Amino acid sequence: MSTDINILLLGQTGVGKTTFINSFANYLVHNSLDDGIKGELQAPISASFIHMDKDTFEEREINIGAPHESEQTRIVGESCTRECRSFLFRINNRNLRLIDTPGIGDTQGVLEDEKNFANILAVISQYEHLNGICILLKPNEDRLTILFRFCLKELLRHLHVQAKENIMFVFTNARATSFQPARAAPMLRILLESLKNDVNAVVPFSKENTFCLDNEAFRFLALCKNGINVSPEDKQDYTRSWKRTVEEFQRLLSRIAKCDKHVTRDTVSLNEAQQLIRKLSRPIGEITTLIQTNIQLAEKHKNNVSANKTLTPQVLEQIDIQIVELGYPRTVCTNEKCIKVIMDDGLEKIDYVTHCHPRCYLIGVEEDMVGDEKIKSCATINKSSGNCRLCECVWKKHMHITYELRKFMSKINIDINSSSDSKPANEVIEQRIKTLTDEKNAILAVCSKIAHFLRINSLNPVNDDIMEYIQHFIREERMKNSAGAKNDDIINGLEKLAADYRHEMDLLQSLVKKSETNATNLTSIIQPAQIFDLVRTLYQLPIYGVKIRQQVEQVKNVQQRTRENREHIIKLPATAETTPTMIGLRKVLG
């Protein structure tokens, strides 16, 4: 909604994004630290930390809240948040949404960071606008990871440099530095100077957009709830931290509320283009296979008409498809030993009979894509071996599906004269073959352009998903052939399609080399806005445009339902209505 306050939280692993959200919930509910001790601890996100006894030096793990499926047991150096999630607070009939993100600079490595950042961009594109982008830092940091610097630059590049006005610097654990940015300040200025040079973005760093707080009082409350006593002196420190941090929270939210909204959907996002392209992979692979099959059927009918071997020259049989939504998303194996070739309405069909995880609600997995990296997180995949616990095939052979295609034979009436001459019928059939071939070539041309666009613009090396799908369907047709299907022409046609696709990619690559020689921008070959125009040309294809669009919309609908499941509406108790934080926020939000 346009009245929503959307705040994105970014930061290195361990900076305290989770504690930021948990603490905010407690500031809303409790008048003071003493009230928090007496009342119920608010923990929208599960968390854990190690407490060491001052006298015995014994360590004890403190666990807070119930873990969500997108969180994981904390290991030192790992982000405990694996997927972006939003936490929605209702204030004055407005939604205040805090968007939690995976930590940047994770010990799991650079590739995990890049995947996390792609996930962050995907989440941003859901919302009409962002009000604030909070960069969380520790004041005693004297260096930022390369990936963090890279991600901040990429964020501005993907959104728009005007997003710099919505950036807030939030220093956590700041009591130790007297609530000052301390050593992090010069390091941050160096980063901002590089942003100025690299992306021409002058990001302000001043008192107005800088906030120093310490959410240690939340940990103190967690200790109290676990029966651990804290000295009166320490409690006084926590009380001062609580008061100072509540003031900083109010100042932060007041600043964010005054900022102009950064409208994300008005800016054509590179990430949105990338997401749309990935949704096309399965539809394009299936439709090109279907086109090749129907060309073969049309050629066969034309030959029969020419040889007077058919009693119904005016009836052309063509295969059509219908989308059948599954009751539940499932993980299936696509390996040859785990599928069957069955007859359905007189047609050979590949049936994914091995349902390795029949009800799989895996978060973040790319739907309908063979071998997506996220499938490794499915419960059926053994984490140590990478093989499926059920079928024992490697994870790369698995796919997360939400729908199936039912194929059936349709009959097209050919409008011919009453003459017994077969020429009019063949002319109509030839026109049908030409239209099918034109659609196949149009799909090929669009695919090569968007695949090349991905190679130029992606954050990390991209698998050519469309080529993978073409190869996948070639393998399936060969399996049908082994089972007795007479589909040599289909296989040959698909192999030619793959060869033509590679040729198109080679031509585009030569254009890139020429553009490098001429010192022009590589992305000038195709811009993000053009991706949407290209996809619209697919949707407008006369025969299969509607089918491609229906399949893409099916994937979008499933992903939308998944995103809705990631939003957590925080129900606050009645005591929250009269706390200083809530009263202050009401004034700020109006």
UniProtKB/TrEMBL annotation:
InterPro entries, per the entry: DUF8206 (IPR058519), P-loop_NTPase (IPR027417), Sigma_54_int_dom_ATP-bd_1 (IPR025662)
Pfam family, one: DUF8206
Recorded superkingdom: Eukaryota
Domain DUF8206 residues, every copy: 325-404
SUPFAM superfamilies assigned to the protein according to its UniProt record, in alphabetical order: P-loop containing nucleoside triphosphate hydrolases (SSF52540)
The protein's name in its UniProt record: DUF8206 domain-containing protein
Organism: Rotaria sordida
